[in-house]
Automatic annotation (TrEMBL):
It comes from Brassica oleracea (Wild cabbage). Residues 57-127 form the At2g35280-like TPR domain. InterPro entries: At1g67623-like, At2g35280_TPR_dom. Pfam families: TPR_27 (PF23310). This is At2g35280-like TPR domain-containing protein. It comes from the Eukaryota.
Amino acid sequence: MEYFPLLELPEEIQALVVERVARNSFQDLYGLKASSKSMKALAERRGVYYFYNVLSVPWGLNMPSQLLKSCYAEVNPSTLYIKGVQFYFTFGLQEEGISLMKRAADAGYERAVYTHAITQAIFLCDGQYFHGIPREWVQRIGKLVRSVKWGWGLWHSDEFRQNRAMFISKFVLSFYRCQCATHEWRQCLCLWHLDMTKDDNMCERCFWIKEIGTFLRGFEPISVIRDTRKW
């Protein structure tokens, strides 16, 4: 197998390669650091911490707290997102939490774009942040956001549960009654079957009922075992 001569590239190009690797995979970054002294030096620059995606590592693993702090100090979008989610949904610091999520979203962090937009829609009745975003993107990132299991038994706040109950009573029946797509009628008007009831031809309104419902069903608050207030 012929290897690409990375070390023969100009240093600024090598630095860009390191940043891209840091964004995609911790494992590959550590492999790159081990490949040569020059790669190790580039990978250990403080600016590289900005590009880490700390959620590329399963949240249950014991990631060093100093690494998270270093990433946050460099305004790393994934740590802004994590802190924003914990502030908003765990600590009830809603103004600070939504601001942190928006900063991460403005930096292009996809999970933050989704979570900030859906939080605005559910809790602040502001649906503008999803305007123009393709359904396929919303479905893909929504599944990614809901897949993170970081609650470790923590319950949602009273406000979250109240919004969920209100959403079920106000919208779920109309979702099943709408004849916009091939669907299966459910006797239990709850959130458990929303994503398995209609095909992809559903109308725009039913699509957003389904997306918001699956968020309210599957999204977890972040456990206080890792307290981002210490970052």
